Amino acid sequence: MDKIAMKTPLVEMDGDEMTRIIWKMIKEDLIEPFVDLKTVYFDLGLKNRDATDDQVTLDAARANRQYGVAVKCATITPNKARQKEYNLKRLYKSPNATIRAYLDGTVFRGAIMVKGIVPYVKTWKKPIIIARHAYGDIYRNSEIKIGGPGKAELVFTEADTGIEHRQLIHDFTGSGIIQGIHNTDQSITNFARSCFNYALSTKQDLWFSTKDTISKTYDGNFKDIFQEMYDREYKEKFEDAGVTYFYTLIDDAVARVIRSEGGFVWALKNYDGDVMSDMISTAFGSLAMMTSTLVSPSGAFEYEAAHGTVQRHYYKYLKGEKESTNSVATIFAWAGALKKRGELDNLPELMRFGDTLEKATLQTIEDGKMTGDLAQITTLENVTTLNTEEFILEIRKTLESMI
What we know:
44% helix; alpha/beta
């Protein structure tokens, strides 16, 4: 069989630990036998980020903007324990936060639904898409640990006039901590537009929630920008498409989500989206069964799995022990990137391959062949629990039968 040709390369961002092992297997067993794969490669493994003082992450983000489509492996955001383990020069920021800030994109995360994996929330019948603002909040914060008594203030100095605006944060009588976060109207506007456009393109209702009753200025600004844009640009379009937009407080939204059937887009600020996407994916069956797509206002796309580097399984792998790591979300990241590359380059055969790869993955699970995390929760009978490599090779067999 002739391999499917590509015109423009994908930006490939390699990662860490067990997902790095899976990454190599997916390429070698599921993609390269069928596609003449072209990528611009960046090693975002923690050791290389340390060696380059994290310049490689910014270079990868720039390449993503240049080439339009990227696929990213899960990466480590180091804490102090990781700094010691990897002998790092410093505690590097999240690679995802760096890339998202550079592209100023919105992250859309949705559960991968498959027969035999029933959501823990019994009312859920359709995926819930999390639209996560991918800029600012604690991911671009400044923090200080306070050693003793003193006054902490929020200060803004106008660039043109030099006028200072001051607001007391707290008068400390002892030790403590302070944190400063920010956002920009431009980034919030881009976020809102991405959410409205995505909801229209998928013909799904859009929910947006913050806590503006408590954070009257910060969260209130998000609420106002969303509402003004909806009223000015999207109200008629939503009505014509038969979909709705509404705002509610985040605690009310959580209650509504649990009682819902799913099938809508839930827009959230950065931290809220980070937490709720993990909750949604786990409640749908597995954290390894969720797609994550970063969409930037410039038209760049970055596809990745929503989960981390699976550290515990990696340590077992290093010891030569058998482990069973779910690779579905990473496979779907590759498939999504290939489909988008095919769409942008007008290569229908590449789009079909990405779609077939997704179907082959789901068919393998529905045939009763799956990793341990799914075997523990499936309603299917007589299932076969496979290790990481065995599962990917079974997908290869299904894929070959479909092509």
